[in-house]
Amino acid sequence: MSIDRPRIHWIDLLKGYSIFLIVLAHAAIPRGLFLYLGSFVIQLFMVLSGYSFRIKEASFWPFMKKRFLRIMIPYYCFMLISFLIFVAMAGIFPGMLPSVGSGQPEQLRLVIGILYATEIDGSLIVNRPLWFLPCLFSTGILAYFVLFLKKKTGQPGWAITVVVLLGFFGLLASMGFPQAARLRVLPYGIYSACGMLVFFMLGYWSRAYRLLENLDRKIYMIPAGLACLTAGGWLASKNIIVSVMTATYGNIGIFYISTLLSLAGYVWIAQWLPEIKALEYIGRNTMPILLMHKFPVLFVALLANRLPFLNALSEQQSLAFSLATALFAIIACLLAGNIIGRLFPVVLGKSR
Fold first, then answer.
1. Are 170 and 192 spatial neighbours (Cβ–Cβ below 8 Å)?
2. What DSSP state is assigned to residue 56?
3. Alpha-carbon dihedral angle through residues 187, 188, 189, 193, given to the nearest 10 degrees
4. Domain that residue 84 falls in
């Protein structure tokens, strides 16, 4: 799942941009902006993850073990930390955070939800942004079997068919099938992973068949990219707020078309941009940001409740305040991640 050396600057750039938007979405932002970000940002991250996806292991179990250590160990470590902090803060600030309750059954429900790694009735409330890691883990496992099928049959068509069928499976509840909603309780975000597999494999096959490298990079690609972003954003405004975590996509046609337009626009424009060192550095260090950004965002929220001028900006959903919050959170996560990576690299999914 690593990116080949030398690194592809526009991949790192877009990863940095994506994680910034993910953090921004968890700050206090206007509903319209939240709707727009939800329409593409997770899908963009999945495309980039698929583009970077590699299978170097000779068999499935070594592959799964390595992926589990890289993704799920950080998930469980920071979910445990988040659980302990959540319980402590719920006792100190009962009016600031939802209480987990004093009874053992409630706390046990949260622990089971964390182990199960799927959002069910608020079971991941201690650090909800971490739902993405089990989903990414499951998406990689599904991708492994898709590529295994292609290798065994020698027929790319079978692999594409399986991806489409799994994607359809992941969209059933959004298409009005009430019974399919029960499938959302599958562990490790499998239900969401099925819906995201389409975008993950789109990224993988884009690299495998050099689809992006073979683009004729004319200057008109920049206005074309901007046009795609405009059209994608306009279409997204006609849909509901998309939640990949709960597999809620609204109008399926609008969801796919607006997503693909936004993805095309960002990819085309990113390939024309010069190297942006700061953003690319963020893109190379997305794991600590994803794991820890809830803490500084929550700190700012608590601070805002104590300081009237910050509270006013927060209640007004000031974009400048939200951007400052996201930037502060990312810097704090990078600093903490640098320290943790040196002392306890396994917590961040690193071997050394």
1. yes
2. -
3. -120
4. 9-348
Rg (CA), the chain: 20
Q: What is the number of structural domains in the chain?
A: 1
- How far, in Å, CA of 302 to CA of 325, rounded? 12
Global confidence as pTM: 0.90
Task: Determine the distance from the C-alpha atom of residue 39 to the mean position of all C-alpha atoms in its chain, rounded to a whole number.
Answer: 12
Query: Does 2 reside within a domain?
Result: no
Is residue 132 situated within a structural domain?
yes
The token duo for 126 is 């201690």
Asked whether the beta carbons of 48 and 14 are under 8 A apart, the reply is yes
Position 304 in a domain: yes
Q: What is the pLDDT of residues 145-199, one digit of tens each?
A: 999 988 888 888 888 999 998 888 888 766 666 666 667 778 898 989 999 999 9
Where b means 16+ CB within 10 Å and e means fewer, 99-134 reads ebeeeeeeeebbeebbebbbbeeebbbbbebbbbbb
The CA dihedral of 123, 125, 128, 132, to the nearest 10 degrees, is: -10
Q: Which structure tokens are listed for 223?
A: 């206005």
101 by DSSP, 3-state: which? coil
Distances 304 to 75, 87, 313, 343 between C-alpha atoms, Å: 28, 21, 8, 32
Place of tokens 């409740």: 305
Give domain status of residue 3, yes or no: no
Are the CB atoms for 192 and 247 separated by under 8 Å? Answer: yes
pLDDT of residue 105: 54
Per residue in 194-225, pLDDT tens?
Answer: 999 999 999 999 988 877 765 556 667 788 88
